[in-house]
Design brief:
Layout: H1 5-15, E1 20-25, E2 32-38, H2 47-57, E3 71-77
Parallel strand pairs: 2-3
Antiparallel strand pairs: 1-2
């Protein structure tokens, strides 16, 4: 089952309301995306902590073989 980029952004935005978020469909199949999330809350966190927070915001959409989102190339950082 495919997922729309707007749905990915909405899920991330619910957890990071002030973030700059860019979602890119990598394969045109609704299953492979790249996301860039820039948020002040990431300041002082390492990359693993940042990315875990974003994955948690996806509320299971990537879980297991039945997940709606197959792949997400994730870039996270605090604003410059």
């Amino acid at each position: 089952m495919a997922i729309q980029p707007e749905e990915i952004e909405d899920l991330i935005r619910a957890a990071f309301p002030k973030a700059r978020i860019a979602i890119t469909d990598l394969a045109g199949d609704g299953n492979h995306y790249a996301a860039e999330v820039i948020d002040e809350s990431f300041r002082g966190q390492n990359r693993v902590q940042q990315q875990r927070a974003v994955y948690a915001a996806l509320k299971g959409k990537m879980d297991g073989a039945q997940g709606e989102l197959h792949a997400l190339a994730l870039t996270t950082k605090a604003p410059d």
